[in-house]
Amino acid sequence: QAQLVESGGGLVQAGGSLRLSCAASGRTFGTYAMGWFRQAPGKEREFVAAISWTGGNTYYADSVKGRFTISRDNAKNTVYLQMNSLKPEDTAVYYCAVSGVDGSSWYGDFGSWGQGTQVTVSS
């Protein structure tokens, strides 16, 4: 069972940037796809981005395409989410998770969820 710990959240003004990190331990990190999801108050958890186990394939929700970049460093067992041009609607708790299904954006294919990190974007 993997343990995931997110960090890097905070308060930023609209148009600003943040870089989230997700450190993994407990299993062979480099053989699993990884993903980021987010959940705003009163809303369902939604897919943000995912990356294949090699890092060669990346997938994004339409709402973040062109602004967010997912990457991973298998040597450090860490996946990142670079968030640029942030908007107030990006405000949410961001979670990372592992998946055995490359290319999936369905939360049901993901597990070992971290505790989340809060991102707040002020207007």
β-strand amount: over 45%
Count of individual helical segments: 0
Round the Cα radius of gyration to an integer and report it: 13 Å
Write down the overall mean pLDDT: 94
- DSSP summary, beta strand count: 11
Percentage of residues in helical conformation: under 10%
Task: Write a brief caption for the model.
The radius of gyration is 13 Å and the shape is globular.
Task: Characterise the protein shown here.
By secondary structure, this protein is mainly β. 0% of the residues lie in helices and 50% in strands. A hairpin with a 6-residue loop joins strand 5 (46-51) and strand 6 (58-60).
Which descriptors would you attach to this protein?
single chain, 123 residues, mainly beta, 7-stranded mixed beta sheet, 4-stranded antiparallel beta sheet, 0% helix
